[in-house]
Design a protein that fits this description.
- It is a single chain.
- With 151 residues, this protein is of the alpha+beta class.
- It is 49% helix and 18% strand.
- The protein has helices spanning 4-17, 22-29, 33-40, 48-58, 62-69, 84-108; strands spanning 111-125, 132-143.
- β1 and β2 (132-143) form a beta hairpin.
- α2 packs across α3 and α4 (48-58) runs antiparallel to α5.
C-alpha cells in the first residue's frame, strides 16, 4: 500500500509532466486550487467522485486513486521546514502571529480562527516593484466556550 504523501508526489509529477496546472486540475474537479493541491499532496481525503475525475484527467493507477481517498495523518514534515517558501510562512507567523492573535481577540473576543473550517485563496497581483503574492485566509471564528461534560 502506497502512502498518501508518496502517492501525492507521484501524482504531482504526472500532473506536471502532462502540463496541467493546479488551477486547471481544480477546475476539472470543481474544487478550489489550494484545496486541490493540498488534497492531492496528501493533506485531505479526496471524495470518491473527485478521485475518479482525477484518475481520468491524469490516467492514474488504481493504487494512487485509492491513496487519494484515504484519511490523512496531518502532521508537520520536519524536512519541509527547511524549504525557503515554507520557512517564510513560519517566519510570517513568528513575526505577525502575536499581533494577529491580539487583533482577533480585540475584534471577536476570546477564541481562535479555525484552520479546519476555512478557505484559502492565492493569486498574483502585478506591482511596479515586482509581482506580489496575495494570500487570503477566510477562517471561521471559534469562541472558547466551557461546556460541562455533565448534562
Amino acid at each position: 500500500m502506497i502512502g498518501k504523501r508518496e502517492a501525492g508526489e507521484q501524482i504531482d509529477e504526472i500532473r506536471r509532466k502532462a502540463g496541467i496546472s493546479w488551477e486547471d486540475l481544480a477546475g476539472r474537479i470543481g474544487r478550489p486550487p489550494v484545496w486541490t493541491a493540498s488534497a492531492v499532496l496528501g493533506s485531505h481525503p479526496v471524495p470518491a467522485a473527485e478521485a475518479e475525475m482525477l484518475r481520468e484527467a491524469l490516467c492514474l493507477d488504481p493504487e494512487l486513486v485509492d491513496a487519494l481517498t484515504r484519511q490523512p495523518t496531518r502532521t508537520a514534515d520536519p524536512a519541509a521546514a527547511g524549504d525557503p517558501t515554507i520557512y517564510r510562512f513560519q517566519e510570517l507567523i513568528q513575526v505577525y502571529g502575536p499581533a494577529l492573535k491580539a487583533l482577533i481577540h480585540e475584534e471577536f473576543g476570546d477564541g481562535i480562527m479555525s484552520a479546519i473550517n476555512c478557505s484559502i485563496d492565492l493569486r498574483r497581483a502585478e506591482h511596479p516593484g515586482g509581482d506580489r503574492v496575495v494570500l487570503t485566509i477566510d477562517g471561521k471564528f471559534l469562541p472558547y466556550d466551557w461546556v460541562s461534560a455533565q448534562g
